[in-house]
Amino acid sequence: MVRYFTFLLFFLGCVSKVLVVQSPCGTKEQEPATPEGAAGCGCDRLKRAAAVEEDGTLSIDPAVKYSTEANERTSKTPGEERTQSQMVLISGGEFLMGTDNPGIPPDGEGPQRLVTVDSFYMDIQEVTNQQFQSFISATGYVTEAEKFGDSFVFEGILSEAVKNQIDQAVAAAPWWLPVKGATWKHPEGPDSNITERLDHPVVHLSWTDAVAYCSWANKRLPTEAEWEYACRGGLKDRLYPWGNKLNPKGQHYANLWQGDFPTHNSAEDGFIKTSPVMSFPANQFGLYDMVGNAWEWTSDWWTVHHTTEQQHNPVGPPSGTDKVKKGGSYMCHKSYCYRYRCAARSQNTPDSSASNLGFRCVSQMNR
Ligand SMILES: *[C@@H]1O[C@H](CO)[C@@H](O)[C@H](O)[C@H]1NC(C)=O
Ligand SMILES: [Ca+2]
Ligand SMILES: [Ca+2]
What we know:
It comes from Parambassis ranga. Keywords: Calcium, Copper, Disulfide bond, Endoplasmic reticulum, Glycoprotein, Metal-binding, Oxidoreductase, Signal. Pathway: Protein modification; sulfatase oxidation. The protein has a domain at 84-140 and 201-366: paralog of FGE (formylglycine-generating enzyme) (Alpha-Beta Complex). The strands form five sheets. The chain has a four-stranded mixed β-sheet with strand order 12-11-9-13. The protein has a three-stranded antiparallel β-sheet with strand order 1-4-14, with no helix packed on it. It is globular. Strand 7 (259-260) and strand 8 form a beta hairpin. Helix 3 (63-73) packs parallel to helix 7. It is an alpha+beta fold and 367 residues long. The protein has eight helices and 14 strands. The structure holds 2-acetamido-2-deoxy-beta-D-glucopyranose (NAG) and calcium ion (2 copies). One calcium ion is lined by residues 126, 289-290, 292-294, 296, 327.
């Protein structure tokens, strides 16, 4: 109950900014944001208020400790079928992070700033259902959505049977419904499964769950800077991982939303929901689905204030309430969620989970 209320307050705050250009949602803007730009697809305000203590601190499971112990219990037999993602070396270097021409100014996409990152390896794909299944089989890990008993699902992909059971919605974004029993194994609730989607990105995982998985795999989540450097694929100051045109030569380069959000998804790119990973071309670094398909968690706490001084391996603020996610999802359309750009960003509390939010891991070594 509280969590929907919190959502509503946030949303109203954002909308009021559109009218008076002043609100807690954003800072000085060069141009008025669209209501869509401010409120987005509603993806960024899904919170579990229950996890926020009265003093504002967050109660987070010690996932790292847990998964380290679990990892020690897991014996890696030689010749065992490889389930981990292939990784690619991202050679370190400097790049321009963020943009001075923000698509959504309140998100803190700017200012553009010079950042250097050291070399690292990155999963070429989002973590899939099959890969996450191997983690669960090895550790017995229980995800936060399973503990809480529900997760947020986009209404457009729910069955009538499930929709009819729901009496509570997010008032300001009625297309997001808290669905009892929605988990990574049951992405649209108990009457759905992942049997036909083993090669799709795993979704309904919290930041804490994502950290637990990467840690088990002897990897970690990327920082926002690493993620954005990787997204840009060596291109300078471009919108997308492949350049500035959304559909070069009429081709789709990412699983996004075509049609009218949220009522009509024409699926011109071939997919209404998630797609199998690597269904679209890789960027110049060999990375797939950096934008679109599933949003991807990063390790950084959220802030919209960035220094313009040159940074080396920035890791974000030391603390916060929300974590940064990058890349947008299959739900993103320019009219509502113009966040399928490398500079774009959004946030969720670390215990939030939803039907369009996943992750990939990085490592200093090729694992
Ligand atoms: C999984 O879902 C498919 C439909 O996508 C259905 O045909 C199948 O029976 C389901 N399997 C199980 C084990 O529930
Ligand atoms: Ca699509
Ligand atoms: Ca993605």
